Every structure is written in C-alpha cells, then in structure tokens.
C-alpha cells in the first residue's frame, strides 16, 4: 500500500481525534458553567443565612475536639451528644445576655420611678457636677435652667417626634426577631454539623484532594487551627479579663459591675478595645464613688490588659497557627472591619491560608 493510499485514513483518524478533543473541551466548559451557576444560585438562596451557617461552622470547629473526646469516653450516641453540645453552646451564648437583660430590666424600672418623681418635682443638680475639674459651673447653670423645674419632662416630650420614635421601635423589634431566627438557624445547623461531622470532614477531604491536591488538606488544617487558636486567644482570654475586672468593679463599688464586666469582656475580644471599656468604668467610678476607685480600676485594668495582650494571646494564637502575631492582629482588625464580629474568626483564617500558601510557594524550588 502506497503513502497516498494510507493518507486518507490517517487524516480521518486525526480529524476524529480533533473532533473528540473539541467535544471534551465543550463538555468541560459546559460543566464548569453549570457548576458556577449552581453555586451562584445556592449562595443567592442562602445569602440571608450565610452568617448563621458561618457561626455554626465556627462553633463546630471549636467544640469538635471536646465533642469527640466526650463520645469516646462516655459511649454516648451521636444524636444525644450533638443535642447536648448544641444546648451547651446555646446556654453559653444566651446566659450572659439573659443576665444583662435582667439587670437592664431592674435598672429600667428604677429609672422609670426616678423619672416619674423627677418630672413631678424637678431634678436637682448632682453633687458630682460640682466636683468636675472643668465645665462644672456651665453644666450646673444649664441643668438649673432646663431640668430643675417641675414639668420639664412634659416640655421635653413635646419636642420628641413620636412618628420617628414608633419607626425606630418597629425597626428594633424587626431586627430583634431577625437575629433570633438567625440564632435558631445557627444552633440547628450546629446540631447537624456535629451529628454528621465525620462524614462532612471525610467528604471535604476528598473534594479538597480532587481540587487542590495534597496541599489542600494542609491549608484546611491551618484554617481550622486558626479558628481554634483565635477562640482560645480572643474569646476565652476576653472572658477571663471580664471576670477579673468584674471582681475589681465589685470591690470598688462601681455601679452596675455585672454590666461593666460584660462590656469589658465583649470589648476585650477586639484588640485594644478593652481599654475603652475599662476607662468608661473608671470614669463612672470617679464620678459616683471617688478618685481612689478610678485609680484602682485603671491600674489593675492596665496590668490585666498588658499581660493578656503581650503574653497570653500571642502564645495561644501563635502556637496554634504558626504565624507571626502581627499577621494575626491584622487579620483580626481587618476581619472585624469587613465582617463585623464574624471577622474575629474569618480574618485570621484567611491570613492562615495565605501564609500557608506563601510558605508552600517560597519553599518550592524555582524553575530557572
């Protein structure tokens, strides 16, 4: 057989191969487009609940070691264990809020009684105004002209826009209902994440290997370590700071010590914010109790914040994530700015993934 006789058959095979290659590329493109559309549709449908799902994932990552240890030690079924730990997380989150709500209701009742009496007889100038280092005379004069006479409350209410007040009340009520629903969805998602956690982890590892190779699982482990390190270094340390400062507020007879203690713990989750809460408590103590109480609060608060921020947090977070504390700090601040409270965990997790990728690329031999 001559070359001219073999050529048509060879051309046909090559043409068929090119056609199959084009078809496979078209199928790959269509599959990628379909996946992108499905993922986009899923994100759009769940957009209102992404925060709840993210918090559920963070809680699941945080309690997973305790959850698995509890199941192995006490041989409890997965359903009971998941329900128990979900309830525990709910109690830990809601208990401080319930204490604050009870304290606020008690204070509100006293405030309403005080406002009723003050509206009937007027408000005398507080003695603390006279002790102010500057501006005391001006404040006392304004107070006498506007608040010391009977009926000042009615005059003030006449100037209030009641329509705007009702709108604000409706917005606050709707927001409270919305956040309650999100919290319920968060706990429900947490229950199922704990119940099917092993299956979800196995499937996630398989998908990670298929998409990113062996390094995908390592990056995922770094992200999980950053979440746990952030929980230990921020939340638990902040709770410790809040408990210590609550004891200080009680000893110095600062008004509303539980409220200020909770405010200090919440502020301590954000770097450098605890000093603001402690300073506010010291200011209130200086006005109501005396300068000595304020000095004690500031002195002990400075020691607690310095020790927590310079020794405890860097040790807990840095040892878990294996990255410099300055990157953790930038991740926390940037995360809070972008994602609010959720950014406390999302920011360091993203920084951990970036640092892991950077170390992987920098350690690989360069192709020259």
From TrEMBL:
Enumerate the transmembrane spans: 28-46, 52-70, 82-102, 176-196, 231-252, 258-284, 291-312, 324-355
One GO term describing the cellular component: membrane
* Subcellular location, record wording: Membrane
Q: How does it sit in the membrane?
A: Multi-pass membrane protein
Q: Which UniProt keywords apply?
A: Membrane, Transmembrane, Transmembrane helix
Looking up InterPro entries in the UniProt record yields:
AI-2E-like
Q: Which PANTHER family match?
A: BLR8064 PROTEIN, TRANSMEMBRANE PROTEIN
Question: Belongs to which family?
Answer: Belongs to the autoinducer-2 exporter (AI-2E) (TC 2.A.86) family.
- Annotated protein name in UniProt: AI-2E family transporter
Please report the organism this UniProt entry assigns to the protein.
Methylocystis echinoides
Origin organism lineage: Bacteria, Pseudomonadati, Pseudomonadota, Alphaproteobacteria, Hyphomicrobiales
